[in-house]
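Cross-check.
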Amino acid sequence: MENKELNKVDIIFEKIDYKEVLVKALKMTKEEIIQEMLDSGLKGRGGAGFPTGLKWRYTSIEKSDEKYVVCNADEGEPGTFKDREILDRVSNKVHGGMVIAGKAIGAKKGIVYLRGEYRYLLPKLMIELNLFHKMIKELGFDFTIEYRMGSGAYICGEESALFESIEGFRGEPRNKPPYPTVSGLFNKPTSINNVETLVTAMMILYHGAKDFTKYGTRDSRGSKVFSISGDTPTPGIFELELGMSVLQFVNEFGDGDTKAVQVGGASGFCVPRKKFAETIIGFEGVPTGGSMKLFNSSRSMYNVLHNYLDFFAEESCGQCTPCRVGCQQLLKGVEKVKKGEVKSIYLNELVKLADTMKIAAKCGLGQSVGNAFKSIVENFREEIIY
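Predicted model, tokenized:
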């Protein structure tokens, strides 16, 4: 695997006839669309990896006079900027994916929740959306899409906090169950998908599920758009086949001195050099919403960890104690260890705290803090205690 060349793919940004794909989709039954998604093995591209076909099926079987398709374009994960590029270059693929989802689940309304910092894209997006609405009307399908702006809160990337924000409330996660497929936006059955997931769904109908499964692995079908940054000579947006090793990735994008790769942003996992060859980028290894940050030997992993913890302490909504207090204590704890105010063995207690947060925190923010914390502490302990 180490010497295998990376397969660079061009599916997401491929030029297609939007109308042709939608005509095909609207002739299909909702069962046929859902089955195509299931056959493709498509999993959510936001990072969680829930099968898209199952999400659509669960939403479609709910009995309700009103359902919603929501596109999560909040993209607040540090180091991730691929959804911005997708919206800027192929927004009608996003809109098309929402129409296909609407047909599959029986919804007539779609909402794109756009990250507040991406407001500058809105004028262009509205022009494209107006033209898209005319095309959908010509095809005789009753479905409308609108944009709602986020306000810069990381927590609103969590699906239920996003619903709260759209409804005009403070962005705080809800208790689960019920799940969005049963009670989502305005307490109606809702399918919420990432920007890239919706585009991929449209491209699956264009090429066919069988063609899509030629890429990736059994557990990680297809390709993925990566936001690559850090100590690399080639930063930017790249679409790659899933299932590669971190070593393959580093051989392609590293600067020759890469000592760690943060896969999945601040809430993801830090992979050290000694584990590059054995670690797979995919759902059977380390999944990622798109962020890939490379660090070379000049970087202090203590500073990296401190930066992540400072971010989480700032962005915690404060609703649940495990996250609100836990983030602060992890941050204060590593500071004390670094200053020599407590013995290095105290890191073991902090790891236990991170494990507790994973179980006790209400949402993905608090639950995922331990990912980066544990992987950095376990693999770069010497950089934290000295």
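The two ends are 36 Å apart (CA to CA). The mean pLDDT is 96. Passed to J.P. for a second look.
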